[in-house]
Design brief:
This protein is α+β, with helices and mostly antiparallel strands. It has 3 domains: 6-88, Phosphorylase Kinase, domain 1 (2-Layer Sandwich), CATH 3.30.200.20; 96-269, Transferase(Phosphotransferase), domain 1 (Orthogonal Bundle), CATH 1.10.510.10; 275-454, Protein Transport Mog1p, Chain A. The chain has 13 helices and 21 strands. Strand 17 (392-397) and strand 18 form a beta hairpin. Helix 3 runs antiparallel to helix 7 (249-260) and helix 6 (228-237) runs antiparallel to helix 7 (249-260). The radius of gyration is 27 Å and the shape is elongated. The protein starts with 5 loop residues before the first strand and ends with a strand. It comes from Nocardiopsis lambiniae. Pfam families: Pkinase.
């Protein structure tokens, strides 16, 4: 529909989004000088009384529960063409789905969000309602004087628990809905929402939704270092057998809260997540630290590969990196333990996916480099075991660099991995590098090393 001027006293500003059943508009309540969101039933459903009933039932549930953890409904009215609309809380910080897309969340923040989402679903369960469509895009975020608030929203598929036996139609979103929801006429209970909470938890922790059921890969394999209790809880919530899931949203939420408040939680996050700065939230720093980008398209010694020049001014290092890898930047990634123990500070990572650089499950291709000052033994700087098996060791010597390279032509089924410790002849400063490739190309490794410059 085209943008209307107003809904009653509410002046329309812009459209926020739309779905199959409704469109949501941002509007201004000029009387109270306050922004609101207005959800209007879509025109093609104007004469479908069952859809209108579902729409109004969502408004009734939200109005009756009136919870801090749920979107509030302030008013309901009907347009001239008979379509109902509801005036709701405006969530000015978008949704949890938006937050996940911006980059990996610190573990404590992910668990805080999950706890508050669980509290919202607990309120619904106490009200005698099953949500049936819990997913990151249906959890909104609002700023408040005491910080960010979580608001569970979109109860278009919600049903009373005492009507849960024999739903006539499947409802929910694939990837988040429980297996029993996909069966028309299935017997549902609150444990269907527990499955969806488990799916949201999986995505909050790993940045990726779970696979189709049965889910067998625990979050800790994608994000190493998680507490074992968290892996166990999420996998149990995602169990195909609902008898194996936590009994309700409160039970699930209480266990999340206990994990979050455990005194050793900060130790559970692996070292590269505890100390690194999320690259997507550091645009200003990236602009300052990675400058002077250009493409080297001549004969590079690596056939068919164009190299992009990247620079980390804080460490005074410049590198040539394959252009197809230079999709993301991280300017403050902590070095692996062996290099850190030898004195290496945080370095520059240029890769197809900076989030998964240290993962053994998900391939990420690129180059990491950091400077190790002083006179160091090269064998002490190189990480001895990033991949299974014994690496191929070789010496490198060019006009600019000399040192040692360790190659794993096959690393965890995700291409090749190379670590290198090189220094300029007569200069006691070592550059430690890691290079991940989809295929093993020692010529490209040599070219990247040769085009590395210290200023």
């Amino acid at each position: 529909m085209s943008q209307p001027e107003a809904f009653g006293r509410y002046r329309v500003i812009r459209r926020l989004g739309s779905g199959s059943f409704a469109t949501v508009w941002l509007a201004q309540d000029d009387l109270l000088n306050y922004p609101v969101a207005i959800k209007v039933l879509a025109e093609n459903w104007a004469h479908q009384m069952d859809i209108q009933h579902r729409f109004l039932e969502e408004a009734r549930i939200l109005r009756q529960t009136d919870s801090t953890w749920l979107v509030a409904v302030h008013d309901v009215d009907v347009l001239a063409d008979g379509r109902p609309y509801m005036v709701m809380t405006y969530a000015d910080q978008g949704s949890v789905a938006d937050l996940i897309r911006r980059g990996p969340l610190p573990l404590d923040e992910a668990l805080r969000l999950l706890t508050e989402i669980g509290q919202g679903i607990t309120v619904l369960h106490n009200h005698g309602t099953i949500h049936r469509d819990i997913k990151p895009s249906n959890v909104l975020l609002q700023s408040s004087p005491v910080g960010q608030r979580v608001l569970v929203a979109d109860l278009g598929f919600a049903k009373a628990i005492d009507e849960a036996s024999g739903f006539t139609a499947a409802a929910g979103t694939p990837g988040y809905m429980s297996p029993e929801q996909s069966i028309p006429g299935g017997d549902l209970d609150v444990r269907s929402d527990v499955y969806s909470l488990g799916a949201v938890a999986y995505e909050l922790i790993t940045g990726k939704p779970p696979s189709r059921p049965p889910v067998r890969i625990p979050p800790g394999r994608i994000r190493p270092g998680l507490p074992r209790e968290l892996d166990d809880l999420i996998l149990s919530a995602l169990s195909v057998d609902r008898e194996s899931r936590p009994g309700d949203a409160k039970t699930f939420t209480d266990r999340v809260r206990a994990i979050r408040t455990a005194p050793d939680l900060t130790k559970a996050d692996p070292w590269w997540r505890r100390y690194r700065m999320p690259w997507r939230r550091a645009a200003a720093l990236v602009t300052a630290a990675v400058v002077g980008m250009g493409v080297l398209t001549g004969a590079t010694g690596a056939p068919g590969v164009s190299l992009t020049t990247v620079r980390h001014t804080a460490q005074g290092i410049r590198m040539g990196v394959p252009s197809v890898w230079a999709e993301e930047f991280h300017t403050d990634l902590e070095a692996r333990p062996a290099a850190a123990e030898a004195g290496a500070g945080p370095g520059l990572l240029v890769a197809t996916d900076t989030e998964d650089w240290h993962s053994t499950e998900v391939p990420s291709y690129g180059v990491y480099a950091t400077v190790v000052p002083g006179s160091r033994a090269l064998d002490r700087v190189a990480d001895p075991d990033p991949c299974p098996g014994t690496p191929d060791r070789r010496e490198v010597r060019t006009d600019s660099w000399e040192g040692t390279v360790w190659d794993w032509p096959e690393c965890n089924g995700n291409g090749s991995f190379t670590s290198a410790a090189v220094h300029q002849p007569g200069v006691p400063t070592t550059v430690y590098m890691e290079i991940r490739q989809p295929d093993y190309r020692p010529d490209l490794v040599n070219e990247i090393i040769d085009r590395t410059v210290l200023s």
